[in-house]
Every structure is written in C-alpha cells, then in structure tokens.
Specification:
- InterPro entries: Calcineurin-like_PHP, Metallo-depent_PP-like, Metallophosphoesterase_sf.
- Keywords: Hydrolase, Membrane, Metal-binding, Transmembrane, Transmembrane helix.
- This is Membrane protein.
- The chain is of the alpha/beta class.
- The chain folds into two domains: about 140 residues, no CATH class; about 240 residues, 4-Layer Sandwich (Purple Acid Phosphatase, chain A, domain 2).
- It is about 40% helix and about 15% strand.
- It is built from twelve helices and twelve strands.
- The strands form two sheets. It has a six-stranded mixed sheet with strand order 1-12-2-3-4-5.
- Helix 6 links the parallel strand 2 and strand 3.
- Helix 1 packs parallel to helix 3, helix 2 runs antiparallel to helix 3 and helix 3 runs antiparallel to helix 5.
- The longest helix is centred in the first third of the chain and has 43 residues.
Length: about 425
C-alpha cells in the first residue's frame, strides 16, 4: 500500500511540473486574462490529475481510464519534447523582434519639446491659475517598454502552440496506428561456431513483450499467433512480458497461445511484468496452454540429428520483488556439455554480461520495446547494452527484438511491433 502511495506521489510531482510548463506555454502565453485563460487552467489541472490516476488506477482494475489516460500521456510527452525544442528558436525570434522594435521606436518618436523659459515666482494671486502640464515622460509611464510588443509576442506564442499541438497529435495518431497494427516480420541469420552442420538453418520464431492487458486483448494475441504460425518455425521463444494482469482477468485473452505451432516446441521465460501479475498462476496457465516455462533451467533440443541446449533464466524482478526467483545462471547452465551450442532466453538484454561468463553462444531478449516511443530509445540505451537488433557483447551474441505489443500508451513511434525469425547457421 505504501509503495503504491509513494509511486503515486512521485508520479504526481513529476507530471505536475510537466503540466505547469504546458500551462505556461499553451495557456498563459497564448491568452489574455479572462475566461479563456481560466478554462485552459482548469483543463490542464484535470489532465495533470488524469496522468497519475491512469497509471495507478489501471493497476487497481479501473481499466476504463486506460484509453483517455494513456493517450494523453503520449500527447503530453510529445508536447513537452516539441515545446522544449522550440524554446531556442522562440527565444531567438523574440530577441530579433525586440531589436527591431527598439530600432523603430526612436525614429518614430516626436521631436523633443524645447524647454520653457523660466516663469516668474508664483504669487498668492496665481493660486487659481491652471496646473502646469506634466512632462512627456510622465504621460507615457504606463506605455510598453521599448522593445516589448505584446501583440507580436502573443502571435508568436499562439503559432508555437498550434504547431506543437498539431504535430504532437499527428505523431501520436501515427503511433497508435502502428502499435495496433500487425507486427513487422524480421529475419536475421546468426552463425554459431558450435552448431552442427546437420542443424544449419534451424529457425527460432522470437517474440517478446506481447503485453496482453486492458488495451490489448484476445484479438491482439490471435494476430501475433497467426504471424508466428505463418513462419513454420522449428522453435518458438516467448521471452517475457506476456501479460499485464492476472489469469482471472486475462485468461481468455491468452487462450489463443494454445494454437502456437512449431516442430520442437514453444518456450517461455518470465519478464518483469509477470511478477506484477501473479507469476505462479501464469506459470501453471502457460504450461496448460502448451508453453514450456524455463525457470532457471535448460532442455535439450534434438533436431536433424544434432543437439542444442536451450536454457532460460528468470527476470531479475523475481528477486527484487521478494519472490526469491531471480536469475540463476548456475542452475540453468551449470554442468552442461561445453561442446554443444547453447541458446539462452533472458528477458532483459543486460543479462548478457553474466551469460558471457557462462559461455553462452546466443542470448535472445526483449524488454526494451526498441524504445517504443522516440526519443525514449536514447534513455533505454543508458540502461541496456542493446536497444534493438544484433550485437556481440563479451564474446556472446545477443539479439534483442522490439516486442510485439506495447506498455502504457498504445503508441509506437520509430520502433514498430516485431516478430523475428532467427535462423541459426553453422560455420
């Protein structure tokens, strides 16, 4: 309970600061005092409360918050990015307008009025005389300062707000269409030095981060299963983050997984989201649906007259959340025949450093979503050795798939949903 409250408090603070900035740029700078500014302020306040309410509420089963809340989070993010990027050209434009106005004001000012001759000293009889007119400087005390043009500043602010609003909405619309569309099919060939020639061309359909949940239900699962089955793969590897909810909530939506087809079996390893969703129940349910869950263990794949070790480790969240089920590389890889090739299924790419110490030939991972929403890929790259694609780390090959679903906003920009056919090649 206290963890949820702490999470909600931190989230409210961050989103509150973001919305304060958005209010300044989209409301205060674009309106004059009055009803429109008040209405804009109330709207921004409601949206600021919607963001943390969605992230906390959907965890508590208030799924009706998902669509409006997550879509606004995506629009909010791109508004923040676009307005921040526009700060520099906006500042340059304001400075240019200020210099131009200062150059025009002296030329248009009236000629100086000659100083009047000194008047004789006042006498009592002059008490009823008209008051002396104030100096020109006093008359213009309330006029705008030189270089300040409220009309131009208002026009500039409105132009920036309209541009940012239309662009953010367009990007999010494109991202929704991409995220909810069919997954992109990628094919990659990866050579393994120890792979027997008889096993050359062994194909592993690799998918991760399906994220069955309040916004991605049974139709989403069916679409991914159909894509995998069209590959006619030898193995299917589901590398974590399958669900965002309990078996009771999402069991029917996960049911199409029983239709997965492959020659030598379908396998699964846990991701961090399984530990938020009742991992023990899901392990039983996936076994019932025909997926073998590799919890810190391995199995032999006998195919085409050769042998390959397929191993899997739990996600680190299993240990961090108190389940005592974190990754155990010794249990999964210890005591095996080192002459055999071994493919490791591990949800997070960062596990590759430990995998390399255990002589793993290839690790298949997900978790990153390829960044999901540009420029988040830059932040993901600070946490994981590879965001998307193939690389070699400490002598172990690593392939990271973008994932076939989404988490949070139903938006993907720069990282389309993906199912990858990994083809193993012998020397």
């Amino acid at each position: 309970m206290f963890g949820v409250l702490g999470f909600a408090g931190a989230l409210t603070l961050v989103t509150g600061l973001i919305h304060l900035y958005l209010w300044k740029r989209l409301v205060r700078d674009t309106t004059r005092p009055g009803r429109w500014r008040r209405a804009g302020g109330v709207t921004v306040l409601i949206l600021a409360l919607l963001a943390p309410a969605t992230l906390v509420g959907t965890r508590q089963g208030f799924y009706w918050l998902a669509w409006p809340g997550y879509l606004w989070l995506a629009v909010m993010f791109y508004l923040l990015v676009l307005l921040a990027v526009l700060e520099i050209p906006m500042l340059a434009t304001r400075l240019a307008l200020r210099r131009r106005t200062r150059a025009v004001v002296p030329a248009a000012a009236p000629a100086a009025t000659p100083a009047p001759e000194a008047a004789p000293a006042a006498t009592p009889a002059s008490a009823d005389a008209p008051a002396v007119a104030p100096a020109p400087e006093a008359v213009q005390a309330d006029a705008p300062a030189p270089g300040h043009d409220p009309g131009r500043r208002l026009l500039l602010a409105r132009g920036a707000a309209i541009f940012a609003g239309l662009t953010a909405t367009g990007i999010v619309g494109y991202g929704v269409r991409t995220a909810l569309g069919p997954p992109q099919l990628d094919r990659v060939q990866i050579p393994l030095a120890k792979l027997p020639r008889s096993m050359d061309g062994l194909r592993i359909a690799t998918v991760s981060d399906i994220h069955i949940g309040p916004l991605a239900g049974r139709a989403h699962t069916e679409r991914i299963v159909a894509t995998i089955n069209r590959l006619d793969a030898d193995l299917v590897a589901v590398v974590g983050d399958l669900v965002d909810g309990t078996v009771g909530e999402l069991g029917p939506a996960a049911a199409p997984l029983r239709d997965l087809r492959s020659r030598y079996g379908s396998f699964f390893v846990t991701g961090n989201h399984e530990y938020y969703s009742g991992v023990e129940e899901w392990v039983v349910e996936l076994d019932r649906l025909g997926l073998r869950v590799l919890q810190n263990r391995r199995t032999e794949i006998l195919a085409r007259g050769g042998v390959l070790d397929l191993a899997g480790v739990n996600d680190p969240a299993g240990e961090g959340l108190g389940f005592a089920q974190g990754p155990d590389f010794d249990a999964a890889l210890g005591g095996r025949d080192p002459s055999r090739p071994v493919v490791l299924l591990a949800h997070q790419p960062v596990n590759v450093h430990e995998a390399a110490k255990h002589g793993v030939d290839l690790q298949l991972s997900g978790h990153t979503h390829g960044g999901q929403i540009v420029p988040f890929n830059l932040l993901v790259g600070l946490q994981q050795p590879v965001v998307s694609g193939h690389a070699t780390i400490d002598g172990t090959q690593l392939y990271v798939t973008n994932g076939a679903g989404f988490w949070g906003p139903p938006v993907r920009v720069g990282a389309p949903p993906q199912v990858t056919l990994v083809e193993l090649r012998s020397p």
